[in-house]
Amino acid sequence: MCSLHRASRGAAGIALLLGIAVPAQAADEPAGITRHRDCELGIEFEYREGPDGYLLEVVDEDPDQPGIVRRLVLVLESEHRQLPEAGEGPPTIGIAAAPNPEGLSPAEWAAGNPGVSNLHLKLTEIDAFELAGASAIRYLADGLYVADTVVATHGGYAYVVSGAYLDADSIIRRDFEPLLQSIRFLPGPDLHR
User: Fold this and answer.
1) Are 121 and 100 in contact, with CB atoms under 8 Å apart?
2) What's the mean pLDDT when you consider all of the chain?
3) Which of 30, 117, 129, 167 is most buried (most C-beta within 10 Å)?
4) Would you say 59 and 70 are in contact if contact means Cβ atoms under 8 Å apart?
């Protein structure tokens, strides 16, 4: 069960008590590392926060991506300060969640949702693996930016985790793997029961 928990954000150390979409930092985590927990979506992960880290933007029901329940977007703090008012934004790390009531496998879900998975733009072969105990696939996809893309299915949701970058030495590319390894799926409602 996903319970209430304390969150600490930034130097101000603002504590929040909420049941969903709450960043939570444990006492034993390194400074600048924040654990974000979204109880509604049943996922948590860690990311770097602060001037050299990321800002988390939560986007519910994006009209540009129908079927997505929520997108969690990590933008580098340095890039966020320079966001254009119009046009394309910078590369980001994102987690998109969509209902998967049919219980499709990651490959089936990705093939049926190419506008979200970008499977039709893949540059590499698909690798099947396990992410935090859930079935997952991984590939590179091309688009506005090249993106390391993972599709996982768990608890009635499909999750698309992507790290978009301009070059192979990008800080986003370096930060993507630790974020991916920090993902944990939480017990929650199973939409396809």
Assistant:
1) no
2) 81
3) 117
4) yes
Tell me the C-alpha distance between 47 and 172, whole Å: 11
The three-state DSSP-derived secondary structure of the chain is: CCCCEEEEECCCCEEEEECCCEEECCCCCCCCEEEEEECCCCEEEEEEECCCCEEEEEEECCCCCCCCCEEEEEEEHHHHCCCCCCCCCCCCEEEEEEECCCCCCHHHHHHHCHHHHCHHHECCCCEEEEECCEEEEEEEECCCCEEEEEEEEECCEEEEEEEEECCCCCHHHHHHHHHHHHCEECCCCCCCC
Q: Hey, what are 138's tokens?
A: 């991984």
The CA distance from 46 to 48, in Å, is 7
CA end-to-end span of the chain:
17
Decide if 127 contacts 175 (C-beta within 8 A).
no
Give CA–CA dist 10/33, Å, rounded: 10
C-beta of residue 94 within 8 angstroms of C-beta of residue 58: no
Q: What is the per-residue pLDDT across 70-116, written as a single tens digit (0 to 9) for each?
A: 999 999 987 765 555 666 778 999 999 999 999 999 999 999 999 99
Task: Please say whether the beta carbons of 38 and 183 come within 8 A.
Answer: no
**Is pLDDT above 50 for 149?**
yes
Q: What is the bridge-based pairing of β-strands 157-165 and 93-99?
A: antiparallel
